[in-house]
Amino acid sequence: MKIVDAQVIVTNPGRNFVTLKITTDTGVTGLGDATLNGRELSVVSYLKDHVAPLLVGTDPHRIEDTWQLLYRGAYWRRGPVTMAAIAAVDVALWDIKAKVAGLPLYQLLGGASRERVRTYGHANGADLPELFDSVRARLAEGYTAVRIQTGVPGLKTVYGVHQGTAIAEADGVAGAPRLDQTARPVVEDWDTRAYLRHIPTVFEAVRNEFGPEIPLLHDAHHRLTPIEAARLGRSLEPYDLFWLEDCTPAENQDALRLVREHTTTPLAIGEVFNTVFDYQTLVGEQLIDYVRSAVTHFGGVSPLRKLFDYAAQHNIKSAIHGPEDISPVGMAAAIHLDLAIHNFGIQEYSGYTDRTHEVFQHAFTFTDGHLHPGEAPGIGVDLDEEMAAGHPYERAYLPVNRLADGTVHDW
Ligand code: GCO
Ligand code: MG
């Protein structure tokens, strides 16, 4: 078998998605997600200009060899652009291999280790009544675990919460790029002391309203110093969080040592990591409880499987990043992996716009807060190219974040 074509398709059925489509001489095709939110076109160029010419003429069955060639052969290693491009190739080749075998991908990864994949959804609100409504909406949709993000008194806009409006209701996305009229990044504001004072009161109120059973999660989105994160973790202990996510900027692995010494709140990290080296200290010293990388930003199913096997040696579980800026192609690949590995933790899933479901027809299903990849051969996603072409790329940025005096802060 030979690869005869590698095409990059960009579409915006509500947000930008980048998809690689690999075609073989037998007519079998495979899809891979290469979406890098807010910097999409850099990966398009990487794939079109540098990777596609290397793929044509090669054997699609040689997944590991192709992965190593793209990773080592570029000389310039790692980084989100490179690893998103390699991820798209890896997933497209797994899609092809599984289609040729006539099996859903999870069967090639060892078969199902569970019946279905538990997810968590996003609840958010500017204030408690709005937040409670949002939690109720997620529960009504069937979710059995909920991430809690709220406004902070005195701040106009905070990550995961739109001014006066729950983002999930407003545009279907927590943390999505939101445009102002001039297509510039939205500027949010931040005050760490106000946040640290407010968040424990929110979790107390949520526990009082919804009881002790439901797993609750929270994303600090890289905003705290280690000692601030340690304090937050400790102050949230009475509310029994499933995890505290990205409590410090993720690139300093040593920071987590201090956080870990001070709190038993479980820690999750890794959505901006792109190789196992970003986790070396964190996993090796057991400083975290969940690894959060996405198939799409970690070089694909092959290296993420290796990360999970490494994490398993340290009692650490999976929690694949799954916001709406992971396309249904990347999500499908994640669900196959979730079903197959032993140390599955939870899967983030907040659904897609109707238009996205039309453009990306998929075999995976969401029922009672759980996902299943379906039994279609491959990853089980088809891209309607005609429809995709009807929703062209639109430039969009993630928000940025500033302190009261104008200083740029982590978003
Ligand atoms: C999450 C993430 C997202 C990111 C987004 C950036 O936990 O789902 O933090 O909301 O902000 O993926 O593109
Ligand atoms: Mg996050």
UniProtKB/TrEMBL annotation:
What residue ranges carry the coiled-coil annotation?
none
Q: Where is the Mandelate racemase/muconate lactonizing enzyme C-terminal domain?
A: 129-266
The record, for Pfam families, names: MR_MLE_C, MR_MLE_N
Q: Name one GO molecular function term.
A: magnesium ion binding
> GO BP, one example?
carbohydrate catabolic process
Instruction: Please give the name of this protein.
Output: D-mannonate dehydratase
